[in-house]
Amino acid sequence: MTGSPPEREMSIELLDIHKHFGAVRANNGIDLTLRPGTIHGILGENGAGKSTLMKILAGFIAKTSGRIFMDGREVDFATPAQASALGIGMLYQDPLDFPPLTVLENFMAGQASAGTQDRRTHRARLEGLCADLGFDLDPDVPAGRLTVGERQQLELVRLLASGTRVLILDEPTTGISALQKDLLFSGLKRLAREGRSVILVSHKLEDIEALCDEITVLREGMVSGTMDPPFVTGELLAMMFGVEPARAIRSGHEPGAQTLHLDAVTATGGRTGLKECTVNVSRGEVVGLAGLEGSGQDVFLRISAGLVRPARGRVHICRKDMTGRDYHAFRALGVAFQPASRLEEGLIRGLTVTEHCALEAGGGTFGVQWDAAELKAHDRIRAFQVTGTPGSTVESLSGGNQQRLLLSFLPDEPELLLLENPTRGLDMESVHWVWQYLDAHASRGTAIVFSSSELDEILMVADRVLVFFDGRIIADERPEDTDALELGRAIAGKV
Question: Do 285 and 251 touch, CB atoms closer than 8 A?
Fold first, then answer.
């Protein structure tokens, strides 16, 4: 059993939910009924209002108007603690943990029994939940050393231990292996059989179709349709986008002169570091990095950006030896790096789009030209099709719109773009838009190196695929010479 079964089943009804962020209507009259003991899928493109609606249900943000009923009784949440007390818990794409604390200490945090039960009891419960779900979490490891997928697992078992009866999961399969996904799905089905309600928010149709008992599709802040099994993919896509979005295809640019060269580079960092890595990336080439999370791709990208210095080996950018130079020197040569964690390393919480444009311009507090910054914000919102306003704080934007905004800050003509999971958590239309934008850079000669957990995406857009395993590059393939099955074998170390 995955924790204690709920004391009773819980039905939830949301009626005419509205949420406005200034002029942006994230939710615009949404009705939604969640039946107990079922898995309900929420689909929609980025900016459709999925995450906003779930944050309202979890008590993280207040609705502008509308009514929420639980077991027929109207309720109103002012805080996540109030929602949690009624049995509602949410697992976010970016887990809410404390990196310096151990896995066990994070597991105990927020539990009512944390001060009344000894650590041995909590450890046993943690290990039992992990065993049920197939997770391999070391109770004594600091959470900051976990991968994104492992942090999601930690938050999930913590929520279950806290007595969650309605479990909301926002893109839960991001960063976990296919085996871990299968085990997670089995666990979620077991939770539903025990009487819990599970809400799965995802852009991955295959996950939604494989797991859910019912699907609600949001579009432009409204419900565009619902569907029960058997699910029809074409109809779901039509609900999401109006028409099926075009897919990006690998352009196959002819590579030019050498842009990036790593010569027998060894470095520490991440879970495995990087070991004796030798790679060439040419002008106009698009290179995809595949591998289980923490296999060396993150270190590779940061070394290439000047954020991590190698212990051994040499790093060349445009045939210039940059070994030991800092990030600013790499940027001066036209290297740009974009991290996966949009709100931790990329953007600054609490600041608006205009304020980010002002920071980019520099000039100090007294030298900021606010009119010019607001005009630049308007231009970027229009050019990059960001759903928001110059006054929108970056955390109020959807994941897809945050990604578009981040891309707007890249240099106009970079020599080398290094991107960590650039389409993580994005819907298909946003993925297509991102790769159209990046393809235009590659056609002008920019070398692009990106990591992704989606093998289909890598095969679709990359000229070459580098497979990482235990800190080493164990395969260097062209997409036309391989397939997802062969790449999967390589990722597992079977070459």
Answer: no
Closest CA to 318 of 330, 300, 336: 330
Look over the chain and give the mean of its residue pLDDT values, rounded to a whole number.
86
Range 420-451 burial, b when 16+ CB lie within 10 A, else e: bbbbbbbbbbbbbbbbebbbebbeebbbbbbb
CA torsion 239→232→156→166, rounded to 10°? 70
| CB atoms inside a 10 Å sphere around CB 101 | 15
Cα atoms found within 13 Å of the Cα of residue 305, Cβ hemisphere only: 19
Residue 466 pLDDT greater than 90, yes or no: yes
Q: Report residue 425 as tokens.
A: 């958590």
The answer, yes or no, to whether residue 301 has pLDDT greater than 60, is yes
Confirm whether pTM is higher than 0.90. no
CB-based contact 479:462 (threshold 8 Å): yes
| Distance (Å) of CA 405 to CA 383, 384, 421 | 10, 7, 15
334: pLDDT strictly greater than 90 = yes
**pLDDT class for 255, splitting at 50, 70, 90?**
low
Predicted confidence at residue 110, as pLDDT, reads 64
Residues 6 or more apart whose CB falls under 8 angstroms from that of 10 comprise 36, 70, 71, 87, 165, 166, 197
Nearest to 454 by CA among 417, 421, 408: 421
- HEC string of 383-396 equals HCCCCCCCCCEHHH
Write phi, then psi, for 439 (nearest 5 degrees). -60, -35
pLDDT at residue number 238: 81
3-class DSSP state of 363: coil
> Residue 318: its pLDDT value, please?
95
Kindly list the structural domains of the chain, giving each domain's residue range(s) and its CATH number in brackets, ordered by start.
12-241 (3.40.50.300), 258-491 (3.40.50.300)
